[in-house]
Amino acid sequence: xxxxxxxPARLGAFELPNRLVMAPLTRCRADNPEFAPTPLMAxxxxxxxxxxxxxxxxxxxxxxxxxxxxxxxxxxxxxxxxWRLVTDAVHVAGGRIVCQLWHCGRLSLPDFHDGQPPVxxxxxxxxxxxxxxxxxxxxxxxxxLSVEEIAGVVEDFRSAARNAVAAGFDGVxxxxxxxxxxxxxxxACSNRRDDQYGGSVENRSRLxxxxxxxxxxxLTFDRVGFRLNPMMNRFHGLVVEPDTVPTFDYVxxxxxxxxxxxxxxxEPYLPNQLEGGVGVIEEVARHFRPLATMPxxxxxxxxxxxxxxxxxxxxxxxxxxGRLFISNPDLPERVARGAALAPWDMERFYQGGExxxxxxxxxx
Length: 364
What we know:
TIM Barrel, two-stranded antiparallel ribbon
């Protein structure tokens, strides 16, 4: 096998020594009242600093954006100080790390909001089951955000970007995929608004670009990436619709004007993601590569061989690995040596503690 994965790459302002990106991975280890990163988390990220770039686990921009237990935020002083432990550890180990900024929107529970419903573009229940401190629970009908509240969400992302800089991150990634708030605004099935944030593709995409504009006030756009999952079908309450592809075509073309560091695209890999729906595309990167002038990071169940094939075809500039980085903290070295890849233990992904987190060994 060739090793394009091990060649340097440039994503905006980021000079990567290799093309293996550590994907954002929720691990539920911020198990303290402040929802702040811990020294254990700093050790976990430092173990994986040989990645060309680390994208942090999804990080909540405000209390309103919470959707899961034990996930870290970046709205408070304690959280900024906790993340500084992480970024310092990664930088000492020679790595680069960006903060993925996150608002769950309707993919949440009243448990996280003092018994009140979560917020969304429209009052439409995603009909999903969510993880809570007491087990899985069904979602409820969310409350539609007012226009004034949407402006507050934009400001929350701006503040989070400012805090990410203060915490020592090298940049940020906007989490605009996987059925969370920004994606909820873009999808017609979850956005039935009749104001400037609903109806047309331009209106449904407005929140994303207002957030990009706000984040760009805090750091240069060549340190900002964003993530899209266009073919997320029958998952997290969203479906592929006739205007799904035209919507994302518009988003990518307009985003080209920003000079962003990268576009992070998820390929369909869940069994139900290509079932049914009008306008399904089987390879996301192949569709969007001709449209995007910014670098592309591909994600979605890749192994090194498939990653090499995508890079060789020019479909992307780097590949994000998730579960393989969980169980192989030295993944670039294993690829370089052709070593066996360790399997992951999914039962320990979210349970807390050191087991299944920092105890996967590196090669001797």
